[in-house]
Amino acid sequence: xxxxxxxxxxxxxxxxxxxxxxxxxxxxxxxxxxxxxxxxxxxxxxxxxxxxxxxxxxxxxxxxxxxxxxxxxxxxxxxxxxxxxxxxxxxxxxxxxxxxxxxxxxxxxxxxxxxxxxxxxxxxxxxxxxxxxxxxxxxxxxxxxxxxxxxxxxxxxxxxxxxxxxxxxxxx
Length: 172
What we know:
The chain is mainly α. Helix content is 79%, strand content 0%. α7 packs antiparallel against α8. The C terminus is likely disordered.
């Protein structure tokens, strides 16, 4: 049993060295590290989303010509960047969930949820891209990322019940 536990901690340390080492030592630093990781990812995700939403048109004017920017009801490259703002934010939560679940050796439910996300994304893109083009792809991306957050965050809560993080939490 100890050899199997050592392998789990070794895999977690390879994926996220700080989380793996804190768990190996059984320190309460594990909980603080998770809080810092969550805060940092949330900050970066929020900043990326805000920049891509607020500055979409100036960024696209800088990178492309005026012909590629939205005009009237015709979407442009700035529309695509705005559509990706929400998935950028959601991606920070998904990344946090990914690290926590892998460090807690809860890879099976993570794999199931990510496979479901692949199926939703593929199905949505097959249906919406022919009809709506890149706007449809953006809508599918928003929906898929929102679904992944809705499914992964409760798993993180269950695996690492944040009052129980320092003790190692339960595995799914």
